[in-house]
Design brief:
- The protein is built from seven helices and no strands.
Length: about 110
């Protein structure tokens, strides 16, 4: 089972990547050195409450999602927001291809549930 620090590290990394930011960009925006962000995302450095608030604001997710020990399916709303931000940055052609893929997945799932 994942420790709380590892859980937070994993979610911070996931949110950063979904926001399309590098560790260096995050470090600059938050006034840290890049190795600090690396250490946090690796779970080797504790994150202060104030830092969690800054990360949550930067990534447009809630502190609750970052710190929750609930399964990821219980944090659906925040994950949808992260996905929406990612979708908004896609080119129209790529978005159309993704929508086609989603339709195929849903059809396959519906067929398997029958």
């Amino acid at each position: 089972m994942e420790s709380t620090r590892e859980q937070i590290a994993s979610r911070l990394r996931e949110a950063r990547e979904a926001a399309g930011l590098s560790q260096g960009q995050v470090a600059k925006l938050l006034g840290h050195h890049r190795p600090t962000i690396t250490e946090i995302e690796a779970g080797r450095r504790k994150v202060a409450g104030e830092e969690l608030t800054q990360f949550a604001s930067l990534y447009s997710v809630s502190v609750e999602w970052l710190t929750s020990s609930e399964s990821e399916t219980d944090a659906t709303e925040d994950r949808i927001l992260v996905a929406a931000r990612e979708l908004a940055s896609m080119k129209d052609q790529d978005l159309d291809r993704l929508m086609g893929l989603l339709k195929m997945i849903r059809k396959g799932k519906a067929r398997n549930e029958s």
